[in-house]
Design a protein that fits this description.
The protein is an alpha/beta fold and 369 residues long. It folds into two domains: 7-132 and 262-336, FAD/NAD(P)-binding domain; 136-259, FAD/NAD(P)-binding domain (3-Layer(bba) Sandwich), CATH 3.50.50.60. The protein is built from seven helices and 23 strands. The chain has helices at 18-29, 45-49, 67-78, 172-183, 202-213, 310-328, 343-348, and strands spanning 7-8, 11-14, 34-37, 55-56, 65-66, 85-86, 91-96, 108-112, 117-120, 122-125, 131-134, 164-168, 188-193, 218-221, 223-229, 235-241, 247-251, 254-257, 261-264, 275-276, 279-281, 294-296, 301-302. The strands form seven sheets. It has a five-stranded parallel sheet, covered by helices on one side. Helix 1 (18-29) links the parallel strand 2 and strand 3. Helix 1 (18-29) packs parallel to helix 6. The structure holds flavin-adenine dinucleotide. Flavin-adenine dinucleotide binds next to helix 1, helix 2, strand 11 and helix 6.
Length: 369
Amino acid sequence: MRDNAPLRTDAVVIGAGPVGLFQAFQLGLQEVGVHVVDGLPYAGGQCAALYPDKYIYDLPALPGCSGEELAQRLLQQLAPLRVPVHLGQVVSALERLPADADARSPRFRLQTDGGLTFECRAVVIAAGVGAFLPRKVPVPELQAWEGRQVYYHDLPPAQWVGQRVVVMGGTEAAARLALTLAQGNAAHVTLLHRNDRFVIDAPLDEELQSAIGAGWIRLCLGQPVGAIATDDGRLEALEIATADDRRLALPLDLLLPRLGLSPRLGPIAEWGLALERKHLVVETAGYQTSEPGIHAVGDVNTYPGKRKLIVCGFHEATLAAFAIAQALRPDERIALEYTTTSTRLQRLLGVVDGAGGQASGTRRIGTGA
Ligand SMILES: Cc1cc2nc3c(=O)[nH]c(=O)nc-3n(C[C@H](O)[C@H](O)[C@H](O)COP(=O)(O)OP(=O)(O)OC[C@H]3O[C@@H](n4cnc5c(N)ncnc54)[C@H](O)[C@@H]3O)c2cc1C
């Protein structure tokens, strides 16, 4: 494929949170070609990013399910429909293309900060509270080394072998990364945090304290206030302000900040769609925004009576899929079909073979026998 060649599809879903994933499933059942795009390197939205181990108790027919498990179950349900999910790509631009005599031609172009371009005929924004972006170290000069010596996302272990690595943050991600590095082949591992309190559970804290006690991880308490570069432009050290008002230089080869994630509605607020208190205003028949062809579902939308619950987002996604299918195939009556009885739907889901018989490997999904 040519670089930047647009990926052409019927619909693009922005956001691979629970509602975006279920949206893709519902569009797949309608045989609408769909791609999903998310800024995070993993699917699941808030459930995977903010509370992977916490239990959700109000999902229909799932008495208890962790955030991570919900994300995995939604991906499992989507798998037979073979929907491409593009991760680590923030959608930064959305534009309407000029009208064309051919009603089937794309109406929208989307671009991501990672260089992907999509052309499609319908867009569903399932962006929740916005794109989760890593919190940045408040030292602007460090931006010059991002992707070379400063990494906010995972990097292959081979890159830290023999390196002096500074992990920054008091989060679970920071503690786990420091421990992984200490067990790997990094030359030195320093954990930099403003104080000695970490937002982590007791067993992880115990593990961290014993690694610090054994000297596998060096703890440095303070705040970075500047960057020190070599003559040839490499990042050589961080300038640290300590709690007792001293300045020290912390030498490093790699800086891996893990300061948590913060949601940013960002570009979506600039696409000219009607907003109410930073939420996209939609109608409730097909969850279309103020712009025909652009729908919004889940936490990102607002309408009278809106509740930010996963189950409400699932309902919105179902109706949005019917509305999109009808708009894309105006001459067809989009009938309601049950997955229980529709051979067409069962074929799509791979639970019957082409002849209508039960496919091998057909299974009940669930924990029961
Ligand atoms: C601690 C906690 C507990 C909760 N417990 C429950 C519960 O028990 N029951 C319940 O029903 N709800 C619960 N919720 C709420 C529930 O998690 C949300 O309603 C749900 O996650 C909304 O799903 P969503 O798909 O609309 O958005 P999100 O989960 O926010 O996902 C949106 C996704 O869109 C991506 N995105 C945003 N902008 C862009 C962009 N420009 N480009 C690319 N990607 C983008 C984000 O990275 C994100 O992955 C809880 C929430 C929290 C924080």
